[in-house]
């Protein structure tokens, strides 16, 4: 009969990614995306953007940032990216656990808020330095802006009576200027739409002062604490990069 320890060792060899860890010294992003959310949201939320869905995504991003003790979280459309510093050590930086738990927490949080089952998948991105981090979030914001413009055009055409195939054909290969003009001719200035639709939202830590009373002698006390704040009016491009640098420079240390 096999020794139990030897049996466990042999079986664990089949856990393919069990020993895979985030590279030492690397910045990391855990990104979760809604699985099948095109159909899921079409059946339950207003298109192209629903404030209720938006609030659920911000709530989910906040839960991920707080539970995993990241630096910041960025959300646009149905995705959330949570950033971690190189010295972050949660779960010994084990990739399999981080990806599975982040997707699980996102799914549970969104489901609880929406009242219907929803699923997220997870992945990890690694960056060598702060410049790579800024490039990553510039990429995700640019993708969010592109998808927002496409979504507004697509659903505007759908609401005019075009089928899904017709609306897709009408927009296929069209330039950004064409899409802006399509909306403008219908009384919609894309640049005047809420910033959270066009640029996404940043959830970050901020310091604040809490006043209280010392129960021992009744004296007034002031303590510095941290809480989550939401930037719903983000800048773009170089200004977005500068804003991210400021957040990274002033972000309070993570809780023990």
How is this structure best described in words?
There is one protein chain. The chain has 256 residues and is of the alpha+beta class. The chain has a domain at 20-141 and 195-199: tRNA(His) guanylyltransferase (Thg1) (Alpha-Beta Plaits, 2-Layer Sandwich). The chain is 47% helix and 20% strand. It is built from 9 helices and 6 strands. It has helices spanning 4-12, 37-44, 51-68, 95-114, 130-159, 164-171, 176-184, 195-199, 237-250, and strands spanning 27-34, 72-76, 79-84, 120-127, 201-213, 220-231. Strands 4-1-3-2-5-6 form a 6-stranded antiparallel β-sheet, sandwiched between helices. Strand 5 (201-213) and strand 6 (220-231) form a beta hairpin. The longest helix is centred in the middle third of the chain and has 30 residues, at 130-159. The chain is globular and about 70 Å long.
């Amino acid at each position: 009969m096999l020794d139990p320890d030897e049996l466990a060792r042999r079986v664990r060899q089949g856990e393919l990614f069990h020993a895979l860890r985030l590279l030492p010294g690397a910045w990391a992003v855990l990104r979760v995306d809604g699985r099948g959310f095109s159909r899921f949201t079409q059946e339950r939320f207003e298109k192209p953007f629903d404030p209720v869905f938006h609030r659920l995504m911000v709530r989910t991003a906040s839960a991920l940032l707080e539970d995993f003790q990241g630096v910041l979280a960025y959300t646009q459309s149905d995705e959330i990216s949570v950033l971690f510093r190189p010295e972050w050590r949660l779960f010994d930086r084990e990739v399999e656990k981080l990806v599975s738990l982040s997707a699980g927490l996102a799914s549970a949080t969104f489901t609880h808020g929406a009242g219907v089952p929803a699923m997220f998948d997870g992945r990890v991105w690694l960056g060598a330095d702060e410049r790579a981090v800024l490039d990553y979030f510039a990429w995700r914001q640019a993708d969010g802006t592109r998808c927002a413009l496409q979504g507004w055009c697509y659903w505007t055409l759908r609401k005019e009576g075009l089928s899904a195939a017709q609306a897709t054909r009408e927009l296929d290969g069209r330039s950004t200027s064409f899409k802006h003009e399509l909306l403008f001719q219908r009384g919609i200035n894309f640049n005047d739409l809420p910033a959270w639709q066009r640029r996404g939202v940043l959830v970050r830590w901020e310091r604040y002062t809490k006043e209280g009373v010392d129960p021992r002698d009744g004296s007034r006390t002031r303590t510095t604490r941290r809480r989550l704040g939401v930037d719903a009016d983000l800048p773009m491009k170089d200004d977005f990069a500068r804003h991210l640098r400021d957040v990274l420079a002033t972000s309070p240390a993570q809780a023990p």
